[in-house]
Amino acid sequence: GRRKRKVMKRTAPRSTLRKIIKKHKPQLRLAANTDLLFESFFIFSFFPLLKVHLNFIAFLHRLAEEARTNAFADKSKIVKPEHTIAAAKVIMHFEYF
Amino acid sequence: PLQPPGPKAVPKRPGASRRKPREPKIASSLIKKIFSHYVKMPVTRDAFKIVEKCCERYFKQLSDDLEAYSSHAGRKTVEMADLEVLMRRQGLVTDKMPMNVLIERYLPLEYRKLLIPVAISGNKVMPSK
């Protein structure tokens, strides 16, 4: 039969994301604070934090796939630190160079 | 029975009592959840620690990039466009993989509704072009 799909809750920790960016870049602002009242009105307004969250998930997705590939190549049935470290090297390289 | 309050308080380790201003971090439970969802195989505890470290580095790099993009555009505010540019550069957004597809793939409905206005109409497909 079909595998039961586990639903992953992906609520974005928006205030944490904001704080993290603020920690690194105190003077940097993020457009359009997502005030709930305004969300329905400003459909077209900007929600960069949601996209930051999206980028973060995509990053973890890539990292996970790469780590998994490394574990396979290593004939390991479990992801070990070295698989993750090697994955990170590749991913960081991919993303930013 | 309830313990008497006060004198029998747990002896605190020196230094543990003062609450340090915590560094903002993504909850490790969330990182673990997302990572395990995609890795689809067991992960050692130490490997998860590495993943967390990677996340910290990722956010540092991300902040640097966002600052670079917005200041390049003469702004002090990060806008959606900056993230689009970033994701193009990361190879996440391409001609074959538009932003909206990524949004649909990664974000729950309530966020999709905010980011992709046409999704608001539910099943009805609105002309998107």
TrEMBL record, chain A:
It is found in: Chromosome, Centromere, Kinetochore; Nucleus. GO terms for molecular function: DNA binding; protein heterodimerization activity. Its main location: nucleus. GO terms for cellular component: kinetochore; nucleoplasm. The keyword Iron-sulfur does not apply. Keywords: Centromere, Chromosome, Kinetochore, Membrane, Nucleus, Transmembrane, Transmembrane helix. Signal peptide: none annotated. The chain crosses the membrane at residues 28-50. It comes from the Eukaryota. The keyword Nucleus applies. CDD domains: HFD_CENP-W. One of its GO terms (biological process) is kinetochore assembly. Belongs to the CENP-W/WIP1 family. This is CENPW protein.
From TrEMBL, chain B:
Keywords: Chromosome, Nucleus. GO terms for molecular function: DNA binding; protein heterodimerization activity. Its main location: nucleus. GO terms for biological process: chromosome segregation; kinetochore assembly; mitotic cell cycle. Pfam families: CENP-T_C. GO terms for cellular component: kinetochore; nucleus. Residues 1-24 are annotated as: Disordered. Residues 26-117 form the CENP-T/Histone H4 histone fold domain. It is found in: Chromosome; Nucleus. It comes from the Eukaryota. Belongs to the CENP-T/CNN1 family. This is CENPT protein.
